[in-house]
Structure formats: C-alpha cells, structure tokens
Amino acid sequence: DIPERWEKISKVTTVEEVKTAYRAAELSMARLNLTGAKMMHKYGATSCTDVTGFGILGHAVNLAQNQKEKVKFELHTLPIIKDLVKISRAVGNMFQLLQGYSAETSGGLLL
Question: What is the model's pTM?
C-alpha cells in the first residue's frame, strides 16, 4: 500500500469501484489464454507473445521487428477495465495505459 497513490486515486474513484475492477481483471485473466489458443488454431498462427511487462504496443513492436516479411497491424479497440482510465490519469499516467505500454500481469496473448 502506498498512501500517496491512494490519496490521488480516492479523489476519482471509490473502494467499491476498485474492488469491481479487481474482480474484472481476475475474470479477464482467467479466460484470456483459452480464447487466444482457440484463435491460434483457427487461423494457423505460428507465433505469439504474452502481453506482460511491455504492454501491447511494446510486444507488437518486438514481434514486428523480428518478422521476415513486413508486418502491418491496427488496433481498433483497446480493452480497458471500467474506471481504470480515470485512475490512471489520477496518478499522472505513470502506467501509460492509453499509450499501449501499460505493463499488465497476464495481459493476454498477441497472436
């Protein structure tokens, strides 16, 4: 617990919203890799990376730089758990959530 962070966060959210977001993260992490594995088989993917540590953009750049052929991809939506944008802004965007560099724990698979 870091009291300074909670002081900033508590100005934009409630304990209940934080608990709800935490539960949503748990449920998301529990299903992410199953869906990714099914998509890999369906489309014949030959590589992937787990989106942890460097965020989706950091991992995408790494994968693209290591391809034999040119790669182009677009993100049409970036799933973000409810209320986390305002929390991210409250702590000064230190996690770079909206820039795609947020270091998730079990952030899913990038195929």
Answer: 0.58
